Amino acid sequence: MALQSAASPKSRNAAGNAIVAANSSAALAVVIAASCCLAWVNRFVQDDAYISLRYARNLAQGHGLVWNPGGERVEGYTNFLWTLVTAVPYALGLEPVSYMYALGLVMVAGTLVVTYLLAMQMFGRSDLALIAVLLTGGNYSFSCYATGGLETQLQTLLLTSCALIAVRTERLGEGSAPMLLLFSLLSALAALTRLDSGVPVAVMGLTMCWLAIRNSESVGMAVARLGLLALPIVTILGSWMAWKYAYYGSLLPNTFHVKAGEASLLRGGWYVALFLAVYLFVVPLGGVALRLPKLMQALGGTLSVMVLASLGLWLVYVVRVGGDFMEFRFMVPVIPVIAIMSAWAIVEFCTSRRSVGFAVAGMLAASFIHAIAFDNVPWKRGIESVSDLARHLTHPDSNWIGIGKFLGDAFREDASVVVAITPAGAIPYFSDMTSIDMLGLNDKWIAKNGVKLSDRPGHQRISTVKHLVDVGATFVVGHPTMVFDVAQLQRGVRMDQLETMFLGKPMPDPESLPAHAQVVLVPYSKSKHLLAIYLTPTPAMNRRLEELGWQLVPILRAGQAG
User: Fold this and answer.
1) Are 134 and 342 in contact (CB under 8 A)?
2) Interacting residues of 178 by C-beta distance below 8 A, sequence separation 6+
3) How many CB atoms lie within 10 A of CB 560?
4) Cα(436)–Cα(68) distance, rounded to whole angstroms?
5) Which of 15, 119, 253, 554 could bridge across to 132 with cysteines, CB 3.0–4.6 Å?
6) Per-residue confidence band for 255, with pLDDT thresholds at 50, 70 and 90
7) Tell me, what's the pLDDT at 163?
8) What are the residue boundaries of the structural domains of the chain, listed by start?
């Protein structure tokens, strides 16, 4: 029998498919590697990260999940699972920031892989999936919050993974026990990471319940599958809530009381709209709206409702809470889904590879322009850029890490010294002193009774002076205020000059300021002094300040000349 001189059509198709798959895998690997490199270039740590690290360090040192060892138990964090994760380096003797950087890059890679798989499950096109990964990994906000020190990237990975399982279940008609249990487990972990993960998870969970019933052959099978869906999430979250109530005396985090009812819908709407505009997502999402019937036909009714409802409810939630003061942090968890929908619109409307390339390049260029220009735009409405967040910690004009170390060197060994501060991250962490969070995130009384300050997320309330006196604050640093010329302060510091300590607002109850209170000029460097109110004088502290060479000047009350 003669040998065939050419491969059969079937074998040629198989070889072609293998080549396409290999090329797609290689392209995906390149995009992921480039995205991880970009995230490394954009790495930073923000002040709020050190709140979680302070809790994590106290836990690892045996003090429990508390803000001040030996003090009141207060849930001043909103990221339980992330706080546990960041306790690991302290237990193992590792450097915590390097650990968070490495973990963040691993989670970036994981999120991008899941994003690719999710896009493939939704639309079955490798080119569309690669565009989605490129738009996600090349997004400046996604790239920056790969690090930052907060739970953002972990939440994004978990929510995207939940979406993948839900979509896969719908597409393949699967209802296997492992898939149901995995979805429930990941949903529970997402809620442990941030409780607001429950917004999109609730939609996906209802979809999974419907799919479990639809794909069951009998009532008994449907009940069993629903039981599998409920088992991990009910067990894990129920145990967590029971522990929280026993440990903290409350089911809700202390931050809820700070923020509840104080959010600005206008600020939240602007936050979402600005994000969609600066990254040009508004263009492809507008295309999605124009071709919505076709999208729903491509996805199917159940799947399209789940995806659109999850995304829509998250955006509504962000508007409802007033957005965030950090640059687009709350938008990162849904960037993979937004990127997938944008990729669909790009391939739907662009008629050639060249036009697709131009569209993708344009969106990546918008991300680059945003990265270099956002610091200087006048319409941020109180949103701090990533650069702003990073500068607080190390820039010579603020250097909160340096202030924390400086105060710690002076008083770390004296447990009786209590400092009141508004930026409750790096300064309390590096000083390792008993601290009062003047914005109330880590103080139950301030969270419920503090004076209304603003509608800025996380900055809605501030402590009264009376409360600081009642809890025995030694020094009030507030928002750290540096002065360069102390000669003009020798006769005293006016009350209005102390307003910066209260974030630019007048002291809420100046009449509560004790008559013996003074201002201490802390010689932070040769050219700069840090202002602090010496609120609770003692003979021992007076001697200590004299030893340190820290000068005391009077507070000039109303009617006194400076």
Assistant:
1) no
2) none
3) 12
4) 9
5) 119
6) confident
7) 96
8) 19-376, 395-556
